[in-house]
Design a protein that fits this description.
It contains six helices and twelve strands. It has 236 residues and is α/β, with parallel strands linked by helices.
């Protein structure tokens, strides 16, 4: 899904004002309060370009996983000492366990159905030590979705200009973000489109998926950026 846009990903979210350092500090605080497994192995699921890993690697033995190779290539240059894996979050198998598993920036929304959401949380729980913590930042819930909303994000850097626009659409419980890009760089100007489909899971569906995976779950309604957080713990 990020085949063409990966090289602009970080610039877009710099323009948005996303603060990975602050978010990583919040993750540290949650883990300091909840983690009871006795270890420091952390897996970032859907790690993207590795910006959370960059800020967490000093405190945890980090690894990352993502489906998109172009994003992982950027992460590999940012956190060269961190093991990175290309795999689907729904059914990956790393043959090891972690003390903390995080899945941030609403990446969980790319899971296509409730059945697959349940499978994803089972996969997370299978990779978690007893006393470990799973932190999931959800995508927008159905009651908060605004159909027909016009969105635009602009990058205005010295050698890079990007305009990304879309109109929010919905098909049942799936939000459709069909991004249109115009990119200007020293190589010239190009345009392309990129479709993204993210499932609008309900709070009840997220909660049930955690409980079905054998995890005790708490919901922080604010979270890192106003979308909330689900915090699951595995009993000792």
């Amino acid at each position: 899904m990020f085949t063409q846009s990966a090289k602009y990903y970080d610039a877009l979210y710099r323009a948005l004002g996303k603060n990975y350092a602050t978010e990583s500090e919040q993750i540290r605080s949650i883990l300091a309060a909840k983690l009871r497994s006795g270890g420091d192995a952390l897996l970032d699921v859907a790690c993207g370009t590795g910006l959370h890993l960059e800020h967490l690697q000093g405190d945890f033995a980090c690894e990352g996983i993502d489906l998109e190779r172009n994003l992982l290539n950027i992460a590999a240059t940012r956190v060269p000492g961190v093991p990175l894996h290309q795999a689907d979050m729904i059914s990956f198998n790393l043959s090891k366990k972690f003390d903390a598993i995080i899945c941030l920036f609403s990446s969980i929304g790319y899971v296509p159905s409730v059945m697959r959401l349940n499978q994803t949380l089972l996969t997370f729980a299978r990779h978690l030590h007893h006393g470990g913590v799973v932190i999931v930042e959800p995508w927008i819930t159905p009651d908060r979705w605004q159909d027909g909303h016009v969105n635009a994000l602009y990058v205005n850097e010295p050698n890079l200009k990007v305009a990304r626009m879309n109109v929010s659409r919905r098909d049942g419980n799936v939000s459709i973000l069909h991004f249109h890009y115009m990119v200007g760089s020293t190589d010239g100007i190009r345009t392309f489109t990129e479709p993204h489909r993210l499932t609008l899971f309900t709070d009840q569906e997220y909660t049930a998926a955690f409980l079905g995976a054998g995890l005790h779950v708490e919901h922080d309604a604010e979270g890192l950026m106003g979308r909330g957080l689900y915090i699951g713990t595995k009993s000792l």
